[in-house]
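Lab notebook, bench 4. We co-purified these components, and the gel suggests they stay together. Before we commit to crystallization screens, I want a quick structural picture of the whole thing.
Request: model the full complex, all chains together.
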Amino acid sequence: MEVLIIAAGRGSRLNNRFSPKPLIPIFGLCLIERIILRAKSAGITKFKIVVGYKGDRIVEKIGTGDRYGVHVNYIFNSEWEKGNGVSVYKAKGFLKENFILLMSDHLFDDSILRKLQQIEPESDCCILCVDRRLNSDHFNIDDITKVWVENNKVKEIGKGLDRFNAIDTGIFLCSPVIFNALEESISKGKYSLSAANQILSNRGKLKTYDIGDNFWIDVDDRETLQKAKKILLEQLKKPTDGPISKSFNRKISVMISSKLSRLNINPNHLTLISFFLAVLSGLFFFLGGYPKIVIGGFMAQLSSILDGCDGEIARLKFKQSKFGEYLDRVLDRYADALIILGMTIACVYKMETIWVWLAGFLALTGSFMISYTAMQYDEFLISKAFNKKKASFRMGRDIRLLIVFIGAVLNQLFATLIILSIVTNVECIRRLFVLRHEYKLS
Amino acid sequence: MEVLIIAAGRGSRLNNRFSPKPLIPIFGLCLIERIILRAKSAGITKFKIVVGYKGDRIVEKIGTGDRYGVHVNYIFNSEWEKGNGVSVYKAKGFLKENFILLMSDHLFDDSILRKLQQIEPESDCCILCVDRRLNSDHFNIDDITKVWVENNKVKEIGKGLDRFNAIDTGIFLCSPVIFNALEESISKGKYSLSAANQILSNRGKLKTYDIGDNFWIDVDDRETLQKAKKILLEQLKKPTDGPISKSFNRKISVMISSKLSRLNINPNHLTLISFFLAVLSGLFFFLGGYPKIVIGGFMAQLSSILDGCDGEIARLKFKQSKFGEYLDRVLDRYADALIILGMTIACVYKMETIWVWLAGFLALTGSFMISYTAMQYDEFLISKAFNKKKASFRMGRDIRLLIVFIGAVLNQLFATLIILSIVTNVECIRRLFVLRHEYKLS
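Here is the predicted assembly.
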């Protein structure tokens, strides 16, 4: 399905001297880039963009869409000052089938577009995506377009409604009938999209789709821009984050990622940096002696924190890749092995006993087994999170590397190896029982 | 969709004094049990079975179907000696919607039924599954029902056709219209199902579905029974089997599984036995000294061979389980760790050097990494096999444990650890490049 993006207005509260609002950057991607890439995640590859105010800047930035792996065409609206209805109307000659209409300043979850594409509307109807969460703090109630919905049909729509039970999200599934309604409203001197929507709704031809729990936000001013940024960072958390990750690592890595996002960094290079820190950690342990092993511990913890950044940057900038994920997992395991080997050798200098090696062997085996069984265990955790059950404990890399850090600071590497051996292998046995129970139920 | 199984005939060439043909055992499950469980794999849970000759034996064996997790009802046909058309006709009052018709002596792939259930036939048509591989050696050309097909419609059907271009597989998607055709043929004194099919085909109402590469076999005599067994064992091979597995381990494990299949063994117990042998192997290495480490090597190889049996028995007897697969993977990794630990300690007795431990550490890391990356790599191998491209090399557990065996017999455990360290870690790096290339293409 094709997408029409309206990017012609001035957006007076957020534009600056140089750029129109659709080019405002958020974590290294401008608003309209985020909208294109988000729609692409939902399988959409054909875009028409209506430009007006400083349209040449937008054309210059987005181009043919090749860079994003999509096709972009432009429609120029010289009358952009009249209202957004005129901008939509300019697309009349170019769209003969159903299309999705998006605003260039509304961010949203791709699952909304995924579901919208599955809806088969009657040929003379349009569908407006609405948000029923009236108490949400994602929008400024004075600025938004309000909707009165009855039986999944829009009865009233407009900014000035006194009575309303839903919010207009700016996401539409349109049939070309919208152009007739626009023609009618423009001929009456009403230039907003809402005016045309009111005409459709008077005829019972504007239906609604409730976006449920999904996220959307109208980036309208400094305040909503900050909210949007906060939510995008919030979305970087994973349901499988362990306790140390949740309460510490993720908070710092997200902070780092938000700074790094402005640079043009390949996430795989961050994976290599995190790995390199783990190699350094193993090396400092290997060199042995008290101050050095503390540095080793710090390096391990730092590597653990940075380990989140590659995925965060990838998700934040739509740069996820199957190979990136694979590389991260493989290097994490080698990093674990090098850190444990370094710690074991540090102990061997001091004690030179078979027990040290045994502890190292068992710690390595247990660490690997936790990672080896992570996929199945995480599936179980995710299904629990999905069913909103109480989260289960997750003994992951975040905890293991924190144990290493504490052990190094306390200069107790042998004890650390023994603790790692026990907690990882016991956890592996616990998972065996948890999953046996789980698989029996399913 | 409901399934009707015809199990009323005598099957004179294969029945014995005690059992009717549907109760002939093949690897611990009788023919009709295999048919029910195979259909269950295709998502079917409701069965009607027409019984006649020694029907009480069949009812006694299968019961309500609870044991198989399905529902079974019986229809008794006292006129079973007349012909199989009469048996189908007896189901008339019980089947008001489309159903699948199966013979109690025809084995087949469940993918045939999976696809058949997706076909929506016209209401007055039946669909016959046909095999176009006329040169197949799975059947005796004199005994089978032949078909002349034109434009996906049956033109002629019968055992005595001179001209034919397909074989009747005995698998049908029937609409209740089949009962009208049967009524007509029976009233003319023709009691076979083929006679009714000829009536349908005369009216252009018998269409065909080509089963393509899928397996089916009519178990009609000693010869086809042996063929069926051979094929079932052949199907136990996996596209991800490594070279040692393909040429040696799998052949022996399949032989063992075919014997064990007669017993009522839980596949998970076989997993535990294979693990126990690996523990013994590690223990013999740990005890050290020349004759003992040879025993350790033998135990490792034996464990490697038996490692195939759990999955083979599970697949052969429809006892696959998610937990069984998980348990097998987890215990295999602990088995690997114990064998490498045992070998390392055996070397430490003789050399007591840090290099031995280092080699053990690296061998353990590499072995784990091969298993850790197996899922992604196997996905790639399977997609290659699916596209019929030349198989890629797979450095798996079969090769590792053979190296251990050879190293033990030659009394070269340290060299073995070094070889394992190198081949496993190099292979892991090779996979990184192979998969980077693969993911870039996809």
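The CA atoms of residues 79 and 91 of chain B lie 13 Å apart. Worth comparing against the SEC data before the next meeting. The mean pLDDT of chain B is 91.
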